Amino acid sequence: MNQKIIYILEDDADVRALYARELKAHGFLISPFGTIADFDKALETDAPDLCIIDLSLPDGDALTLLRDTLGEMDIPTIVVSGRGALGDRVLGLDFGADDYLVKPVNTIELAARARSLLRRMDKISAAAPNTELEKVGFANWQADFSTLELTSPDGSCEPMSAADARLLKAFVLSPGKVLSRERLMDLYNDESDAFDRSIDAQVSRLRKKLQDTAKNPKLIRTVYGAGYVFTPQVDQLN
To answer: What is the pLDDT of residues 157-180, one digit of tens each?
Structure first.
C-alpha cells in the first residue's frame, strides 16, 4: 500500500518537528513548511493526501488558504491552532477544515485524527458509483460538482466550496431520506458536541446559498432529534 503524504504548515520549528516525528512513526511521509509561500509552492507541484495547518503564520492568515486553495483542491485538512474559542473553531470548519484541534495538542491524538480522517476519505472515495454524478437539477436549481458551481432559478451562478459540494452531494444522493448528524459528520469530523454544532453551521451555510430558511424550509428540512431531509425531487443532468 502506498504511503500517505502529509503536508505540515507550522511556523514554530520545534512544534513542526514534533508533529513530523510522531506522524513518521505512524508510517506517513512528511513535508514540513514554515510559511504559506513555501506551502503554496509545494502544492503547485504535488498534492498531498492530507494537510495539517496552523492559522497564524508569519506571512499571513491561513483561513484564506484553507477556503480558497485547499477547499478548491478538496484536500482533507486538520487545523491545529491556538485559537480555541468555539467561534474560531466553527469558523475554521466553515472555511473548509475537516477537523480542528486546539494547541497544545497531544501528538498521539494528532496522528490518530489524521488516520481517522484518511480512513473516512478512503471510504468516501470507495462509495457507490452513483456518487460520481457530476450535474443535477432540483427545484429549478442546478449543481455542477465537476466545476463546483451552483446555478439559481434566475440563472445566476456562484461557486461552491468543496465542503459545500460534499454536503449538497450527500443530500442529492438521498432525496426524501433523513440523514442523521452522525452520517453527515462522516464527511467532516469526529463526533463531539462542538463538531455536532458545526454540522448545523454547514447546513446553515448551504441553506443561505440555496436561499432557503430554517423557519420556512423548502429544500432542506430539519427533523428534530433525527437530522435533515432534502425534500425536492433530484434529476441527474447531462
So the answer is: 988 887 788 889 889 988 888 888
Cα-flanking dihedrals φ and ψ of residue 170, to 5°? -60, -40
Q: Rounded distance, CA 117 to CA 128, Å?
A: 19
What range defines the domain where residue 214 resides?
Answer: 129-236
Q: 3-class DSSP state for residue 236?
A: strand
Distance CA 134, CA 138 (A): 14
Q: Find the range with the poorest average confidence among 5-14, 55-64, 177-186, 188-197.
A: 188-197
* CA dist., res. 229 & res. 199, Å (int): 14
Question: What is the count of structural domains for the chain?
Answer: 2
For 85-95, give one letter per residue: b (16+ CB within 10 A) or e: eeebbbbbbbb
**CATH classification at residue 133:** 1.10.10.10
pTM of the model: 0.59
| Chain segment 83-95, per-residue pLDDT in tens | 989 888 888 888 8
- Which DSSP state fits 58? T
Give the cell for residue 4. 500517505
